[in-house]
Amino acid sequence: MNLRVLEKNQNSMRFVADGISTPLANSLRRIMLAEVPCMAIHDVVFIENSSVLHDEILALRLGLIPLKTNLDAYNLPEECSCKSELGCHLCRTVLTLDTQAKDAIRTVYSGDMVPEDPNIAPVSDKIPIVKLAPNQKVRLEAYARLGTGKVHAKWQPVSACTYRYMPVVKLDSSDCDACGECVNVCPKKVLQSKGNRIVVANLVECILCEDCVEACTRKPPAIRVMGNQSCFIFNVESTGVLPAERVVSEAFNIYERKYSEFVSQLAGIEDESAKTD
In sequence order, which ranges of the chain are alpha helices (DSSP H)? Predict the structure, then answer.
C-alpha cells in the first residue's frame, strides 16, 4: 500500500491509498467509524434538576456533546487494571455542571461544564444543553470514558468518512478536435483547454459523473472516464474529539492488530490440526 496526503488540517484529511482492494478500503472506513475510541459522557449523577427536561433527556444530550480526547492518558474500561464498574482515574474523568437562572431565562451551554481534566472538555463552548426559567437549577456530575462507535454513535470520532475510486481520464488526442464542450460541462473543472488540445488539469477532483463523455461531439467519444479499482481517495472529517490524522493512524494500528491476531489464530489452528493428524 502506498499513501499520499492530498490535504490536511486539524479536523479533516484527504489522502490517496494505492495498491489496495475495495474490501480493505471499506474495512479501514468501518474501523474509523466504529472502532477508533474517543471520550463521551456515559454516566450522569443528578444532584438537582428543576428544569423542564427529565433527567434521562438531559443525560442523552450530555452524552452527545463531543469531548476532546487524550488517548494516551486513559484506558478503555474493559482493558483497565481497576476492573471496576465505577472506573478509576485511568479510565474515566468527570465534568461538573452547577448553574441556575435567576431573574431571566438562561440557556445553559457546554461551556458551563467544568472538566476535572482540562484535556477532556467539550470541543465547543457554544453547544446548547437546556433553557432554564427563572429560579430553575441544574446540578450534576457527568462521568466520561472511552468507548467505540460500534457500541454507541456518541463514541464515533468522525462525522464523515468516505472513499471513492481514483479517477482515470483518457483522452484520444488523435480523434479529439478540442471543441471545448467537455471543458464547459465539467462541474469540477477537471479539464482545461490549452491551445488546440484538451488536458487533464485536476484529476483528483473528478467525481466520475461522465458528463464530459456525454458532451463529446465525437462518436464514439474521444474521452473515457473510469475508476481505478486498486486506488482510493479517502475523505475523513473529525468531530473535533481527535485530530483527523490521529483517527487515520489509529485505524491503521487497529487493522494491523486485528490482522496479527487473525494470523496467530490461523497458526494455532494449523498446529492443532497437525497434532491431530
Answer: 22-34, 55-63, 181-185, 211-215, 244-276
Contact 66, 240 (CB under 8 A): yes
Indicate the residue type of 141.
E
98 pLDDT above the threshold of 80: yes
Say which residue the cell 454516566 belongs to.
Answer: 43
Please report, for residues 40, 84, 108, 113, 119, the alpha-carbon distance to residue 101 in angstroms, rounded to integers and kept in the order given: 26, 37, 9, 15, 28
Q: How far apart are CA 97 and CA 81, in angstroms?
A: 29
How many Cβ atoms sit within 10 Å of the Cβ of residue 187?
11
Residue 190 near residue 182, CB atoms below 8 Å: no
Contact 167, 202 (CB under 8 A): no
Helix, strand, coil abundance in the chain, percent, nearest 5: 30, 35, 35
Residues 237-263 have pLDDT tens digits of 999 999 999 999 999 999 999 989 988
